[in-house]
Amino acid sequence: MPVLVMKFGGTSVATPDRIKRAAKRVGVEVSKGYDVIVIVSAMSGETNKLVGYVNETAPLFDAREYDAVVSSGENVTAGLMALTLQNMDVPARSWQGWQVPVKTTSAHSAARIEDIPPDNIRKKFEEGMKVAIVAGFQGISAEGRITTLGRGGSDTTAVAFAAAFGAERCDIYTDVDGVYTTDPRICDKARKLDKIAFEEMLELASLGAKVLQTRSVELAMRYKVKLRVVSSFEEQSDDAGTLVCDEEDIMESNVVAGVAYSRDETKMTLMSVADRPGIAAAIFMPLSEAGVNVDMIVQNISEDGRTDMTFSCPVDQVKRAEKAMADAKARGDVNFHDLVADTGVAKVSVVGIGMRSHTGVAAKMFQVLSNEGINIKVITTSEIKISVLIDRKYMELAVQALHDAFELEKAA
Ligand code: ADP
Ligand code: ASP
Ligand code: MG
Predict the structure, then answer these.
(1) Domain-embedded: residue 89
(2) CA 215 / ligand 2 centre spacing (Å)
């Protein structure tokens, strides 16, 4: 039997009623002759609630226990989905990550899937089971501890199963009907894309477009998984939604494919650091070891042998970053006068493979922001993206102005 992977996000399984609706979609695919692997997220809001409990209990938590807590939301929906399908007389059962097993690295709260032996589930399919429901977002480490794959990780579970089972397609059911030129929730001119290139989707995702987790796009690209984003609230045809595909499969595209944002960023500045060989390593090694995801980095020109070092990281990692730097200072590894955290910033980025062959995109972006009176605090660029850090209160305005200026509401 051909295998299909269907992933349902938090809003798509938010209530028993919505689970019923999702189960009906699954039933349709079963009736077409597929063996279906369903990956479920926790009910919407549930993971946030669990993360909140952990932070309330221990702000500098042991990541192994964080995973034990936050992985639990998916267990509930997996069981409920199995029960719902059984009510419909569809042979189905649930699997938690460790039962499959979904083998991951030991990088708790940001683990990577290393292997998914398909034998256990395949055997059940051979015995007549039609649907395997797997709790997304979670796995098990070599040490036998429960791990999670980072926020939004059920997308990655889905793609990894599609790769492991050679699935015909991996459908990501969510609360929007595809990938848009920007988040349709903050820009009403956002346009749905029928197709988007892997590389562009990868950048958009890593720059904050949470419609797909970055790692899921990476895996789909590597293992040639046919990846589609579709709405769980509308009737579906086989070509609905957005297909994430190779660049060659897209006939026409705009220079800028989309605008992404990441709301909860912090700009951290180490004031007056001794400028000497090895200083960057002395700062960023302990940050990395403390699990701080440093994004942008700017080192100022030094004066009298001292410089300021600025970096950005997510708001919820500020405490960790501060502790790592205070410890490094106490050890005598880094010498700085002050660490200033500006927690009121957001990152806005434009992405497009067309930038490889078109100049002037950055200049235009800066002009647009200048016209809106928005100050740029930090800039970074790569071959196919430009990102800026700005005050959070201007984030929506910046996204909308850039969407207008690059005429993203119009197809190429
Ligand atoms: P799920 O719970 O189904 O995994 P997510 O909330 O993780 O859903 O992702 C879907 C959300 O991603 C949408 O509701 C939308 O607000 C947001 N989003 C951000 N950027 C985009 C984009 N470019 N296209 C579509 N949705 C986007
Ligand atoms: N429930 C997890 C989260 O909210 C995983 C997911 O939904 O993909 O991040
Ligand atoms: Mg998601």
Answers:
(1) yes
(2) 13
| Element at 363 (helix H, strand E) | helix 361-371
Mapping DSSP to helix (H, G, I), strand (E, B) and coil, where does residue 381 land? strand
In this predicted structure, what is the pLDDT of residue 18? 97
pLDDT tens per residue, range 92-147:
999 999 999 999 999 999 999 999 999 999 999 999 999 999 999 999 999 999 99
CATH code of the domain covering residue 388: 3.30.2130.10
Same domain, 275 and 154: no
pLDDT one-digit tens code per residue, 352-407: 999 999 999 999 999 999 999 999 999 999 999 999 999 999 999 999 999 999 99
Residue ranges around ligand 2 (CB below 6 Å): 9-10, 41-42, 47, 73, 136-137, 151-155
Q: How far is CA 163 from the centre of its chain?
A: 18
Q: Which ligand is nearest to the CA of 191?
A: 1
- Quote the number of domains for the chain: 2
* Same domain flag for 138 and 266: no
- 3-state DSSP of 149-198: CCCCCHHHHHHHHHHHCCCCEEEEEECCCCCECCCCCCCCCCCECCEEEH
* 266 and 168 together in one domain: no
Residues in Cβ contact with 394 at an 8 Å cutoff, skipping those fewer than 6 apart:
346, 372, 374
Of 175, 197, 214, which closes a domain?
175
Q: Are residues 161 and 28 in the same domain?
A: yes
**Omega of the bond prior to 286 within 30 degrees of 0, cis?**
no
Tell me the pairing of strands 113-115 and 103-104: antiparallel
In a domain, 21, yes or no: yes
Domain range spanning residue 304?
Answer: 259-405
The pLDDT-based confidence of 252 (bands split at 50, 70, 90) is confident
Residue 238 has pLDDT above 80, yes or no: no
Helix (H) or strand (E) holding 7: strand 3-8
Q: Of 175, 202, 236, which closes a domain? A: 175
d(CA 150, ligand 2 centre) in Å: 8
Instruction: Flag whether 212 is in a domain.
Output: no
Is 189 domain-assigned? no
Cβ of 210 closer than 6 Å to ligand 1, yes or no, is: yes
The per-residue pLDDT for range 63-78, each reduced to its tens digit, is 999 999 999 999 999 9
146-158: per-residue pLDDT in tens?
Answer: 999 999 999 999 9
Please list all protein residues whose beta carbon sits less than 5 angstroms from ligand 3, which is an ion: 9, 152
